[in-house]
Amino acid sequence: MADSFQLPPASEPSEPQRTLELERLTRENAMLRLAVQEMPHGLSVMDGEDRMVFSNRHLAEIWGLSESVLQPGNTFQSIMGLTRGAEAEQSRQQPMPEKGSVGVRRREWLMDDGRSIEVMVTRLADGSTIALHEDITEQRQRQAQIAFHARHDPLTGLPNRLAMRDELHRQLVRNARGEELAVLCMDLDRFKAVNDMFGHAVGDTLLTQVADRLRGCARGTDFVVRLGGDEFAVFQCGTQQPVSSTSLARRLIAALSEPFDLGGQVAQIGVSIGIALAPFDGDSPDALLKSADLALYRAKAAGRGTLRFFEPGMDAQAQTRRALEGDLRGALAQGQLHLAYQPQVDAKTGRVTGVEALLRWAHPTRGNIPPVEFIPLAEETGLIVPIGAWVLAQACRDAMQWPEHVRVAVNVSAVQFTRRALLNEVTAALEDAGLNASRLEIEITESVMMQDQKQALCLLTELRAMGVRVAMDDFGTGYSSLSYLRSFAFDRIKIDRSFVHDVVSNPEARAIVRAIAGLGASLGMAITAEGVETLDQLDVIRAENCTEVQGFLFSKPRPVHEIVEIIDSIHLNFSKNNGLDPEQTP
Ligand code: C2E
Ligand code: CA
Ligand code: CA
């Protein structure tokens, strides 16, 4: 059947047919021209010798050329020669298909005026080319923006963690070539307080200003990053270490200790800095950052506004701390915490007027852990909040067993003073025990006043209104002690035991004791000398008119069941000797 199929014989078109065909072609040609002129791309057709055959209007616009340059016959080279500032973007070039082979090639040009032009060239079998030209500036800008945001913190504009790792890699390579490198990790002091007090918008303003000051402290090759939250870092490269990083850290601490003006609010913060040096403290980004972080942790523990260099033992110590932290979480529930009590004695009469509650941790495997080791840990982790509430409740209950005139003194940490709930905890402790508020004395240190003084004063005033007494502990060891004494009428000042320790041998220590006692007398505050261990010390302390004494001379901190007896015996000894006999004190 297929064999029988025949094409119709070709016949010459007639005259009218030819006219129609011509009209159709003319119409099609006009439409094609219009489409080519109006298409959004530039279009060029070149012959096998790279001479212009045809181009559209957009081509001239895109390259910023007059249409005369693009006249048929002009070569590609001569045209590009007239294009001002076009430079091939090397990273985005594909090789041109060989002459004689068919293929597509993409090229990108960067213009002097910042524009990017993409050219897609198709080579045909006869060697001629058809190229589409497109201005892709906006697309490239968008991509650049996305890339920037991926590597920068939107709030401060500083490079972020991702950028930091690459930079650290780069610097470590240089470091391998003998250039020195220091990594400074920073954590703002008291940022959280500002954020809580003034709100997040003000906190953000503060972070932006911090970033500006960090940039201001950095020198040309230093690299500043925001690691997140209130943590920042600076990499310092190519300078003498540890001298340069020490001086940079000092500049940073000084710059961030200056008050910040946050649009009406003034905030005072600070910064702690941990420093690691490559390659000694780590030869990879992770290792270096970890070392700097451990050093930072130490800096914070040592007090605000300090710097610490990494030391090899820090890692092991950090692990021990982490283990201890885990144990401390369970300590309260498992009954491992208890209170010891130390009497406070009237310097004139020898009567016990109060008893200080001191926290003890009987660890199941490590034995007794002293409070100086676990209280800072409890403060950092916030565990001091439930532990402190328990101390208050337990101390008030225990005090119910003592004579009416004996008060109980409870240490309350600065962390507890950041929460209004402290007032409820004190009220609950007093009510549950049935203890009169005037028998509770709260001991605070200057750090309470140093965080948010307004809130601290507010809480202190409310405690006072409840009838609770307030003592300023460890006096003389902090900073601007006198201004705190003016801001609140403390019931008592406790002279730090470092002064009492030297009071006999060191005239300056004695002068300080005398000055504080004089201050107390004129401000109407009782004065307790802490850490009295010898009769000689007691003599001097009494001569300097301290009103109360506390120390091993009378009693070490003892378990609660011994306290009633100790209260009696201290008074008895005093009356008997009208001095004190250390042999007979418990
Ligand atoms: P602190 O409040 O200054 O307590 C007095 C410290 O001096 C106690 O140490 C006490 O045992 C010691 N001490 C008393 N008399 C003498 C003496 O004559 N010579 C010597 N060398 N030391 C004496 P402790 O019990 O180790 O407590 C250390 C610190 O731990 C306390 O210092 C206090 O700041 C903190 N702390 C203790 N219990 C608590 C608590 O329940 N809550 C809070 N937040 N802190 C507590
Ligand atoms: Ca105390
Ligand atoms: Ca003290």
Rg computed from alpha carbons, rounded to a whole number of angstroms: 41 Å
Q: What is the spatial order of strands in the main beta sheet?
A: 14-15-17-18-19-20-21-22
Multimerization state: single chain
How much β-strand is present in the residues? 15-25%
- Could you tell me the number of beta strands? 23
Number of helical stretches of at least 4 residues: 20
Bound molecules: ligand C2E, calcium ion
Tell me roughly what share of residues is in helical segments: 40-55%
Shape: elongated
Distance between the termini: 129 Å
Task: Please tag this protein with its features.
single chain, 586 residues, alpha/beta, eight-stranded mixed β-barrel, six-stranded antiparallel β-sheet, 23 strands, elongated, disordered C terminus, binds ligand C2E, binds calcium ion
Topology record:
Elements: H1 15-38, E1 42-46, E2 52-55, H2 57-63, H3 76-82, E3 87-88, E4 103-110, E5 116-123, E6 129-135, H4 137-151, H5 161-176, E7 181-189, H6 191-198, H7 200-217, E8 223-228, E9 231-237, H8 243-257, E10 260-262, E11 265-267, E12 270-278, H9 285-301, E13 307-309, H10 314-331, E14 337-346, E15 352-363, E16 367-369, H11 371-381, H12 384-399, E17 407-411, H13 421-433, E18 440-444, H14 446-451, H15 453-466, E19 469-475, H16 481-487, E20 492-495, H17 497-501, H18 507-523, E21 526-529, H19 535-543, E22 548-549, E23 558-559, H20 563-577
Parallel strand pairs: 12-13, 15-17, 17-18, 18-19, 19-20, 20-21, 21-22
Antiparallel strand pairs: 1-2, 1-6, 3-4, 4-5, 5-6, 7-9, 7-12, 8-9, 10-11, 14-15, 14-22, 14-23, 15-16
Helix pairs in contact: 6-7, 7-8, 10-11, 12-13, 13-15
